[in-house]
Write a structure and sequence with these properties.
about 190 residues, 7-stranded mixed beta sheet, about 20% helix, alpha/beta, 5-stranded parallel beta sheet
Amino acid sequence: MELHEFLEHVNSGALIEGGSAAHRFMHAASQDALRILAELNGAYRTPDEVRLLLAELTSKPVDESVTVFPPFYSEFGKNLALGKDVFINMGCRFQDTGGITIGDGSLIGHGSTLTTLNHSVDPGQRADMTPAPIVIGRQVWLGAAVTVVPGVTIGDGAIVGAGAVVTKDVAAGAIVGGVPAKLIRMTGFGPETK
């Protein structure tokens, strides 16, 4: 299996069956990600060096306005897209196999976790995984230690309070918090105010 075939598979939402060609490809590709991240996290890196390693991890150009404070973790890397002026604080964990897109100007608080794979509820099929992308809009702020589960979209300008677990889509301009995250109020900066 080639990378483009795997990405087509997961981006369609197709099941990754345990032991299948897609499952084996995913595990092999993770070794490359782990190697790159060991280099990124193993010593001091200048901001330019961090961006070069992120570009190698994602196989995409990373804009010079992107800032990531290591350590940073990703088990795949090749299904991660970072917009301009994105800031990712220390200790974030991205499970991007199912696809993570972060829009321009978004801030990800330290220790946040973004996951894009769900395992089967059937114990006999627990190795099977269903991918579902996370989409974070423009100028979103995730506070510290936020968890976002597979398939969630967070709209432009939204704020997610520290420690929240986001299990459902968040509207543009919303402020949410808690476990599970619930609407606190609207910011007044949604798409209707642009």
